[in-house]
Each structure stands twice: as C-alpha cells, then as structure tokens.
Amino acid sequence: MKRSLAALALALAIGALIWAFGGRAGPSNTDFWRWFQAHSAEIKAIKTGEEPIAEDLDRQLKAIDEHLTYEFGPQGQGAREFFISADGRKASFGAVKQLVAAAPKLEGWKVVAFRQRKPKLYTVSFGGVTVDPDDVYFAVVDTSPEGTSDLVFAFKGVEEPGDAHQTLMFQDLRTSA
C-alpha cells in the first residue's frame, strides 16, 4: 500500500512538473478564432503589414504552427479574403486545413486555405515599398557549370533593392506560377 501511494505521489509530481514547465499544448484553433473575432476590426484595417496588430496576428498564427503565415485579399465591397498559408511547407499543410476548417462564420471575412494563384499582375505593397508590374524587369542568368540558373530582378528607379523588394517578388512569383 505504501508503495502504491508513493508511486501515485511520484506520478502526480511528475505530471505537475510537465504541466508547469511547458508540457501543455499550445493554443487551440478555437483560441485563435476567439482572438481573431475580438480583434477583427483592427485586423481588417491592416494596410501595410507593419501595424502592431499585424505582428500580433503573426504571433497568434505561429503559436498554432511555426510556419503559418497570412495574406489578405483586396479590401472591397464584400467580405475581405483572409488567406492562411503554410508558406510552402508541406509538413504544415494539415495545420492550415484544420485552422481553416475550425473558422466560425465571420461577418465581413472569407477565410481561405492557402494562397491562391493570381490571374493578373497588379501593384503590390509591403514594408513601405510599392511595386508596379510595369516597373519590374528580369533576366535568366546561367550561374554554374551544372546548368543551374538564377532569376535576376531589376526595379525601375531602384539601385539597391532591399528586403521588402525581395519579399514582394518571392510572394508574387509563388502565387502567379
């Protein structure tokens, strides 16, 4: 009997330590959508991605899965599209599908799994940089004896493209192909 009580006490102590030091599961999909609903108006007002709520949204998604990211469709008359993506990482596709499936009906929003192919080129903005498709030039450059190539971009009026230019081109290429 003493051994049983000692084993039970040990099991409870170990369980309490695991719970106290990170053994808990992260936030649930339901937790995310509750947070999203509570901040819906602020999120809908995101224009540049540099607003504090944009950083909060990114943190909330990454708490579900470290590879989750998001994108918005244009602000129009109807519902604003909210794309949830795994940023191309197949291991996280299930997390995207589960999070989108758990989405409640959200007034003014259309929640979509994965970024969608874009049928036409349009002006895009990110990180204080706006790029018009008419101002982008590219060339395919052979870079090695193995026959691999690089795709090199140039932007009209820009001598030193920064990280925002790279992010915009990477995102646009992935969704236009």
Key features of this structure:
177 residues, alpha+beta
Descriptive account of the structure:
There is one protein chain. It is built from six helices and seven strands. The model is unreliable at 16-24 (pLDDT under 50). It has helices at residues 2-20, 29-38, 40-44, 52-64, 93-101, 163-176; strands at residues 69-72, 80-85, 109-113, 124-126, 129-131, 136-142, 149-155. The chain has a three-stranded mixed β-sheet, with helices on one face. The protein has 177 residues and is an alpha+beta fold.
Cα-atom radius of gyration: 22 Å
- Identify the overall geometry: globular
Helical percent range? 25-40%
Strands ordered across the widest β-sheet: 1-2-3
Count of distinct structural domains: 2
Task: Chart the SSEs and their pairings.
Blueprint: H1 2-20, H2 29-38, H3 40-44, H4 52-64, E1 69-72, E2 80-85, H5 93-101, E3 109-113, E4 124-126, E5 129-131, E6 136-142, E7 149-155, H6 163-176
Parallel strand pairs: 2-3
Antiparallel strand pairs: 1-2, 4-5, 6-7
Helix pairs in contact: 2-4
In short:
This protein is an alpha+beta fold and about 180 residues long. It has helices at about 1-20, 30-40, 40-45, 50-65, 95-100, 165-175, and strands at about 70, 80-85, 110-115, 125, 130, 135-140, 150-155. The chain has six helices and seven strands.
